[in-house]
Amino acid sequence: MEDAMNIGQAARATGISAKMIRYYEDSGLIGPVARTQAGYRVYGPRDIHTLGFIKRSRDMGFSVERIGELLQLWRDRSRHSADVKRMALEHVAVLQQRIAELQDMVTTVRTLADCCAGDERPDCPILSDIATGAPLHRPAGKSPMKEKRVKPRACQKTPE
């Protein structure tokens, strides 16, 4: 095998750690690879190409389970592109939900930082809100545009 690589070379070539390559093999994303007589893994060009596919899929945020489905479709020359498109659009919806959650987190942390005096006093609205605040993630299906933003409890003035 002229183009064969050991696991360290495969890791460098793909940008995937050796530990993750072993995990992908154990989870079935890549088939069992050839082994030397001493039992060391040997990766050929096809294995490297498959690892590149997995890496790109992970970079796009697909789960290991979904990557397995994508690999099956990739290998199936009689696949329907509609199946791949459906999976991609479902993934877009998941990513949009994550983006909305991250935007909520940014808004909350920024508001808390604005409420903080940032001086030598021990009072800290940031820590108070973290300790007593409600979860930041909105329930699935809730639109961020329809929700009224509420000032975090730590910033609300208490009556004197």
Could you explain the architecture of this structure?
The protein is an all-alpha fold. Helices cover 54% and strands 2% of the residues. The chain is built from 6 helices and 2 strands. Strands 1-2 form a two-stranded antiparallel ribbon. A hairpin with a 5-residue loop joins β1 and β2.
- Share of helix, binned: 40-55%
Q: Unreliable stretches, pLDDT < 50, 5 or more residues?
A: 143-149
Q: How far from one another are the termini?
A: 80 Å
Structure annotation, total helices: 6
Cα-atom radius of gyration: 24 Å
Major sheet: arrangement of strands = 1-2
Number of separate strands: 2
Mind summarizing the main beta sheet? 2 strands, antiparallel
Q: Proportion of β residues?
A: under 5%
Quick check: average pLDDT?
87
Sum up the overall morphology in one term: elongated
Structural category is mainly alpha
Helix and strand pattern: HHEEHHHH
Which key terms come to mind for this protein?
160 residues, elongated, mainly alpha, 54% helix, two-stranded antiparallel sheet, single chain
List the helices and strands and how they pair.
Elements: H1 7-14, H2 18-26, E1 34-35, E2 41-42, H3 45-59, H4 64-75, H5 81-115, H6 125-132
Antiparallel strand pairs: 1-2
Quick structural overview:
With 160 residues, this protein is mainly α. The protein has six helices and two strands.
